[in-house]
UniProtKB/TrEMBL annotation:
InterPro entries, per the entry: DUF72, UPF0759_sf
Top-rank taxon: Bacteria
One Pfam family hit: DUF72
Name of the protein in question: DUF72 domain-containing protein
Amino acid sequence: MHLHVGCAMWSHKSWQGRFLPHPLPAHERLRHYASWCTAVEGNTTFYATPAKDTVTSWSAQTDPAFRFVVKLPKIITHERCLTDVDEPLRLFLDAIEPLGPRADALWIQLPAAFGPADVPLLAGFLRRLSSSYRYAVEVRHLAFFEDPRAARLLEETLTAAGAEWIPFDTTVFFQSPPASAAERDAWVKKPRVPARLVALTERPIVRYLGRDDAARTVDGWARWVDIVAAWLREGRSPTVFVHTPDNADAPELARRFHDEVRARVPALEPLPAPIPAAPLTLF
C-alpha cells in the first residue's frame, strides 16, 4: 500500500529558505525536494528531451522508491500529433533510461484539439510503445468529459493498453474569480473541464489544482481524500500532485494531503521527515 505525493516542479523561488536551503546548487535541489515529497511531475521534458547526464543526476539525487511522472516531448504529442515520431521517441526513451524504476509513468498529455475522432490514432500509438514502461494519458477535449460514448471509447482504448487516464481537477480553482496575479494567469491557461474521479489501473495518477488560499485548497480536496483512501483500501497505489496557481506552499500542502489520507487509512506509512532548510542550532 503506497501513496506518492508531489508537486509540479522540484524547485521554486518561493521555497528557498523555507522548504529548500538557500543558497543551494541546482544539482542538489531535487535531493532536498525528495525529502519533502515522494513524486514529481516531469513537466520540463515537454519542452525538450533532457541530456542523459542530466537524468543520471536526477536518479542519483533520489531513492529508487521516488516516482517521476515524465511528460513526453511536445514534438511527439503536439507538433507531430503521435505521427512519424519513432526517432524523437527513441531519443526520449534513451535519455530517461537512467531513471529506472523511478519512471512511474510516461505522461502523454494531448492537446485540447485531440478529440474522439483521434482516439484510433492514440490506440495505434499505444500499441507501438515499449512494454518497459507504463503510460498515462491526459486529455482536455470536453467531449471526453461530457459525452459518455466518447469517454467509454477512450477508457476502452486505454484499458486495452494497460494505460491510465490522468484527471486534472481544476473545478475548485474555477469556482470563483481569480484573486491574485498568479490566479489571473492560471485562469486563462488551465483547462476548464469537469472532474473525473475514476481509476483504470492499480496505480492511478491525479493532478489537483487548488487556490493560492491554502484553506480553500484543503477544503476543495476533501473528495479526493475520500477517493484516494478508498483506492488504497482496494489495494491500489495512487500518486497525487497538488498544485496551486503560485505553488508557494505546494510541498507542505502535498504532505498535508498525505497526512489527511493516512488519518483515514492508518496502515499507510508516514512520510519521512524533510531535510531541514536551515542548519539546526542549539538555541
